[in-house]
Amino acid sequence: xxxxxxxxxxxxxxxxxxxxxxxxxxxxxxxxxxxxxxxxxxxxxxxxxxxxxxxxxxxxxxxxxxxxxxxxxxxxxxxxxxxxxxxxxxxxxxxxxxxxxxxxxxxxxxxxxxxxxxxxxxxxxxxxxxxxxxxxxxxxxxxxxxxxxxxxxxxxxxxxxxxxxxxxxxxxxxxxxxxxxxxxxxxxxxxxxxxxxxxxxxxxxxxxxxxxxxxxxxxxxxxxxxxxxxxxxxxxxxxxxxxxxxxxxxxxxxxxxxxxxxxxxxxxxxxxxxxxxxxxxxxxxxxxxxxxxxxxxxxxxxxxxxxxxxxxxxxxxxxxxxxxxxxxxxxxxxxxxxxxxxxxxxxxxxxxxxxxxxxxxxxxxxxxxxxxxxxxxxxxxxxxxxxxxxxxxxxxxxxxxxxxxxxxxxxxxxxxxxxxxxxxxxxxxxxxxxxxxxxxxxxxxxxxxxxxxxxxxxxxxxxxxxxxxxxxxxxxxxxxxxxxxxxx
Length: 488
Prior knowledge:
Layout lengths: L15 H14 L12 H8 L3 H13 L3 E4 L3 E4 L9 H5 L35 E2 L12 H11 L2 H7 L9 H11 L12 E4 L2 H12 L5 E5 L4 H10 L2 E5 L1 E2 L2 E2 L10 E4 L13 H14 L2 E5 L24 E6 L11 E4 L2 H15 L4 H12 L2 H26 L3 E2 L7 E5 L6 H10 L2 E2 L1 E2 L13 E5 L8 H17 L1
Parallel strand pairs: 3-15, 5-6, 5-9, 9-10, 10-11
Antiparallel strand pairs: 1-2, 4-12, 7-8, 11-12, 13-14, 14-17, 16-17
């Protein structure tokens, strides 16, 4: 075995034991350590690496437990011959027959992997100008406050509340925080029985679609709109009507009259960011009441209004119980948390809770308790105020920069992104490839349209993940990328 294979970094945050394990796994799976190859004794390797023998022994034991190594009595430790290792070069060069489809796979009724989805480069953080959406600048997150809330959630008294299986119910502490701290800011007043904690807004949408849709219902959704919602409906098999928008969002005219269920993003339309005016919200509610239509309100980024006061949630104007409200505890703050909530009548919440129990029982209760503490101790309010100030400065910088380089974008009062309207002959997917060469990540807009031939000239630019100091340089590189494809 090559001694140069194992060089440890003793200043790394990763433990020496984990470093040894990782290097063995990499060498075995990469073929550097073939099957049945002996490895050094724990004493010898410890001397070679200048670490304690117990460190090597613990690493070896974990590798034996996981089947990478095998111990032979009175012989030593060897690389296991029961692993499925990569093919050798000679094996790779042999022609392969195409594998036959699994007969079980052919019985699948849905193929979600065949649907079109929003895509982002997996390594978007490696680019200097990441104008991506639904991501955040991690340096802005109050890690110390979150760690303190996590520590309190791990206290013996708190653990007794969240370590048990709650059988589909939520942490009452979090429900109370949502009810008393979050919903009143949107003009909504609800009881505990009218709130359900979910695994994010998308989980809420899936639950509602499962409850209210079948192949006889007609679902109305905005066009352009949220592709994942379209994909959910297609899996369920409901009919879809794609609804027209203008500069004030969804148009509440005869196009919605025959819809059984309607989804709308009035705070900031997804993806154009426009806000539905109060009068139009009232018209939408009146029309829904006349037509007996259920409205799903996805209250997308209500806090990111920079040129006007937030408009009351549609749910707050609803006196007939026709609106089901979808809220989020992550979105523009920390999207990886995956916590959201539904607000509806207690009868609807009862059924939604029962369906959620079949799907995932309930969202992780340790995360619920940590978030409840984060809210109760005022950290969420402080973070919201801090981010609103920072995001407003970035939003203004983006707005001025886009105007400077002559790009036309949808005018709105806020939101975490800009919806850019390129020239009619622009292909934003082609622009993305050119922009990536200059370190710029953007999001082509065709995926958000549901027309047979969607327009290609729109694209989204987010600003929540890019540093303020990089915005102008990034927009200049975007301008150069646009010039580059215009010359070809």
